[in-house]
Amino acid sequence: LELFGVEKCTGSAISEVNDVIGYKHICLRVDSVDEEYARLHAAGVPFYILPTNVQNVRIAFLKDPDGLAIELIEDLEEVRP
Question: CB count, 10 Å around CB of 65?
Fold first, then answer.
């Protein structure tokens, strides 16, 4: 669970910045980001960040039915090219 605190906010629950009330995103650890991406994409789930490596993890971001962000994250033992 990742929590953000702010001093001033706009009151919107959906934002790509950290200055709003509400959650920014929820993160789910998965065994394979690529497998989950393929399964969810085939079901019509919209992704706005495709699977990519960031340091020692692989991530992807999708939107839930209300448009809120969900991050998928996979620990990598070796960084993929």
Answer: 7
